[in-house]
Structure formats: structure tokens, C-alpha cells
């Protein structure tokens, strides 16, 4: 069935701006021939008016461009629709209406027969035929009558936009269902153009790649060239973007990398796609991969002799030859759309799009989506360069850049998921310093308390000696009960400043003299916590209070010729002893910290000396992993014999791999005959990601 759509104005290429052709969703078959004629006449008249307006707008926009960025002569004319007169519009409307009326009559008869056979009520709606299985674009609800074209039975028109009408068809011989795409009728009127279209389609049919939708046949029938491809299952990328305009980074890479490899394969065989668009990308179900279709359908562009469909690349706007770098630009624009949810260039007319392509830059990715990894941003920005020479030297190089970006992004994600590991020299320093600090701290915990105990014992001995002196001096006065004299002795003893308190009692335990006058005349009652470690026979010790205010009270009997006459209670504060203990701890811990820090620094330097050859070996292995076998590590001095042995083993492996890579029969040039050290200074192998 021929394509009867007559759009009101040529759609802007879907890659850049505007919306999909609204005619895809507009039913063009009306209930009667008269209504159809009126409908088509109105469409053609509107097309005439809007075409004239669009042409005037394009010419004005082109005139406003700087001289160096104007579209090539004839580019706007090729993109603009043909202008018809009102008489021609009426004639075309009548012819199309007659043809559609005949098809309507046949379709109505077929439907009535089918409804009668199935018992359905007249006028019941028919089900739409799906294309590409689950989630694919739906077929037209107005199913055309069965028609044969070159051995294929057309089943239904597939509404999916683009410049080539596509049909769900059935192979009359094999019986399998396929997709049949008719090349643009307007481009087939010229024999030279038609022959070049067919030649391009046949060249595309020779492509064989897992990420390219295979072309099963290229033929011509009734003056219309057509292409036959498989009826695949899955969802187009355009439909995926309708559901989720902004895709995750990993999904974008999983789509872009296969597309780049498919384009690289096509370019190696001399085939340029020229329409890398989301509608041509098929996402296979169950994660089976991606396939790129549309090869052989669009073969126009500068240098091909076929008029372009509209400005799609900057070089086409400038009137330059369009080749494989143009496909890189289109893939970059598609990646931009997948990452940001918007197309990089917009315009409401071909001239506006051409102006943007020639002069404007798309909004930077880092502003539209700041979370994007830098490696992927760099790839997209390079693909969208205005000059083809600024893009990748080949599409295979683009695929390699995408693979490196994917590996770098995956490696960074893996590092973020794994627990962070410290370098060996940091671990060695921490372990050595920590062990030294622990051992020194343990030693201090044993030594300092012992010193503190010795100091306390010495202080207690001095306190008992002082108490004994006071008791001996006061013995005769206590015997004769000369208590004022005893009081004077107490006051004299307190003036030394080394005592906290001093109390003298008689044999009955009554306080007769004290450093605190309020206690005189009262019965003395021992209080506080006993300290057996400092006590001696007949002289108990008690501690009153705690902390810096604690007081040790030493009791000593007052004897005269061996007969007890009373007791002396002498108190000293513990503050000096505790202050000394703190100072001792600080000195010991400071010394321990200095020793631990020194050992940690020594371990850090030693570990760095040991790990340097390991880092060199790791970089060399990274080069081996990337196919570079020319690295040699064994020359010169290495810090220890084990490192030299590892370097020699690495050289032997690299030489063996180099010989295998060169293939059998390769000469010795470029490959050392033996794994011995090379006469050069030690060489550190380079690696794309230096290890820290």
C-alpha cells in the first residue's frame, strides 16, 4: 500500500528538535470518498500555505547567518517541501481520494466478511497488529487489504516515524513474518539516485555483526526499491526514552558501546549509516543486547549525489562531505539525549536547526547532569565537536574510548563498594608504632606504680619518724600533765608546714593538745579508711578524704619507760605524692610516644623502600594486560634479591608473550632472545591508573 500521508510541513529531523511527525497519529482514511477528497484537498492547501511560510522563514534565518556559517546553496531547498498550485492540489486530492476509496471498499468488504464468519456485530473494532513484540510501536488500526509486493504479503503499516514507510509483511515462500521498508518515493524518481540507493542498501545487506539488524533482502518491485529485515522482538530505544527520558550511566554505556562497535564494523566496510536515531535502535528482551537498524535506508548527504533529508551534521550545513565522523556526531547526540533527557540541538524549522548546528553549542553536560562521570562526558563532548577532525580518528577508536570509560567507571564503583585498604607502608608504620606504644605502656603500668609505692612508703616512714619525735618530746610533759607545754610543742611542730594536722591525747583518749583547738577536751575517735600497706605494729594509718585533698593520719604511742601515757595522731597530705605520680606518668608516656613515633617512621620508610619494586611490577603487569609487551624491569639494581628475581621473571614472561604475539616465524627484531637484563637503566612501566 503506498504512503498517502501528506504532512503539512516537513518535520524537523527527530534527532534534533520538534516532535515526532504528528501525521503518525492522525487517521487519514475517512468514511466516504467525498469526505476523503475534502480532507486531502484541505491538507494539500494547508501544506501549500505552510510550505510558503516555512520557506520564507528559512530564507530569512539563512540570510541572518554569518557568511561562514550559512547552509550550502541548495541545502534549504532540498529540505523544503515542493510547492504546488491549488489546481495541482485538487488533482492530487482527487486521485488519492479515488485510490483510497477503492481500498476502503475492499477493506470494508473484507471486514464484513470476517465479522460475518466470526459472528461479530457489524462495525466491531479490529485488533491492531503488534510490531517487534512486547512494547513495540503499534500498527495502524486501519489494516490495509492483502497486497503482494515482490513476493511479500503486506499485513499492516507500521507507524514509527522516519522517512521510509515500513510494513509488517509475510514472506510468501518461507512464511515467516518480516519488516519491509520502502525507500522514499520522491528519491526513486531519478534513476541515478535510485541506483545509488539500491547500491547503498545492498552494501549494507552485506554487513554481518551481532549488533546490526540483518538485512535479509534488497529488491525492487513496481518501481519502488525496498529492504527486508527480521521482525525482531523487544523495544526501541525511542520507546524506552519515552518511558524514562534520562537513563542511568551504566545503561547508556551498555547501549552506546554496542552501537559504536556496530558503526565501526559498517565503516570498515564502507557503509555510513547517516541516521543513528533512537527509533533505529532495538533493545532486545531479557538483556540479550542491542541492535542497530536503518542501514541502507538513508544513504543521502553531501558527496553521495543523493539530496539530504535535512541538516543533521555541522559539516552538512557547511556543504562539506559527510562520512563516518557524521555517524560519530549522531551517536554523541544520542548519548547526550539518553544522559540528559533532552536533545542537544533544537529548532522549529530546518533553518533554525542549521543555525544551531553551525554556531551554537549544546548545554554542557556538567551543568545539565553534574553527577556524570568525567570519562563519559569527555567522550560525548568529543563526538559533538563541530569539526570532524576534532572527533575520533575512527569509530573503532570511539568504541575503544567508550570501553575505557566503562572500565574506569566500573573500577571506581568497585573501589567505592570495597573497604578501603591502606598502603603497606602506612600499615607497617601503624603496626610498628602501635606495638611499640603498647609495650612501652605496659612497662610503664608496671614501673610507675612501683615507683609510686616506693615514694609513698618513704613518705610514710618520714611521717612516722616525725610522730615518734613529737611523742618522745612530749612524754615528760604528758607524765606530769603539763598540757600547756604540750600545746606549745604542737604549735611549734605545725609551723614547719609539712604537717596537715597534729593531735595529742592522754591515756584515756581525751584530746589534750591539737592543731585544731576545737578538738581539745573531746574524746578522740579514729575515722577514715585504714591503709594496712603503710601501717606498722602498734601504729595504724588511716586515710581521710580522697584526691588531692586526702590526708594520711599516722598514730604513734606516747611512752615513758615503756608505759603508754597517750597517743600522737600526725596527719600529712597526699597531694605532693599524687602530683609526683602524675609527672612520672607524663614523663614515661612521653618517652614511650617518642620511641613509638620513631619506630613508626622507620617502618614507614622501610616499607616504602620494599614496596617500590612491587608498584613497578604492578604497573608492568597492567601494561601486559593492555597488550604492551615491551616493558623490561630487571636491569639495574634492585633493593633486595627477591625483587630482582621477580623482575627477571616478569621480563621472561613479557618476552614470551611478545614472541607469541609476533607469531611463528617472526624475527628477533624488537624481541630479546633471552630473558636477561637489558643494558639500560631501570624503567618504571607506565599504567593508565597509577596506584597509590
Give the topology.
Elements: H1 33-64, H2 75-79, H3 86-118, E1 147-149, E2 152-158, E3 166-171, E4 177-182, H4 191-205, E5 215-221, E6 224-230, E7 235-236, H5 237-243, H6 249-268, E8 281-283, E9 290-292, H7 314-317, H8 324-340, H9 350-359, H10 365-368, H11 374-383, H12 395-417, H13 424-479, H14 483-494, E10 501-506, E11 511-514, E12 529-530, E13 541-544, E14 551-560, E15 563-573, H15 575-625, H16 641-662
Antiparallel strand pairs: 1-2, 2-3, 3-4, 4-6, 5-6, 7-8, 8-9, 10-11, 10-15, 12-13, 13-14, 14-15
Outline of the structure:
The chain folds into 2 domains: about 20-415, Transferase(Phosphotransferase) domain 1 (Transferase(Phosphotransferase), domain 1, Orthogonal Bundle), CATH 1.10.510; about 430-580, PAS domain (Beta-Lactamase), CATH 3.30.450. Helix content is about 45%, strand content about 10%. It has helices spanning about 35-65, 75-80, 85-120, 190-205, 235-245, 250-270, 315, 325-340, 350-360, 365-370, 375-385, 395-415, 425-480, 485-495, 575-625, 640-660, and strands at about 145-150, 150-160, 165-170, 175-180, 215-220, 225-230, 235, 280-285, 290, 500-505, 510-515, 530, 540-545, 550-560, 565-575.
Q: What is the structural class?
A: alpha+beta
Helix content: 40-55%
Quick one: overall form? elongated
Low-confidence stretches: 1-34, 75-84, 120-145, 300-310, 667-692
Strand content: 5-15%
Average pLDDT taken over every residue: 75
Number of self-contained structural domains = 2
Number of helices: 16
Instruction: Compute the CA-based radius of gyration.
Output: 49 Å
CATH topology of the largest domain: Transferase(Phosphotransferase), domain 1
Biggest sheet strand order reads 1-2-3-4-6-5
CATH structural class of the largest domain: Mainly Alpha
At the fourth level of CATH, the homologous superfamily of the largest domain is Transferase(Phosphotransferase) domain 1
Terminal residue distance? 67 Å
Number of strands: 15
- Main sheet attributes: strand count, strand direction, barrel closure: 6 strands, antiparallel
Oligomeric organization of the protein chains: single chain
CATH architecture of the largest domain: Orthogonal Bundle
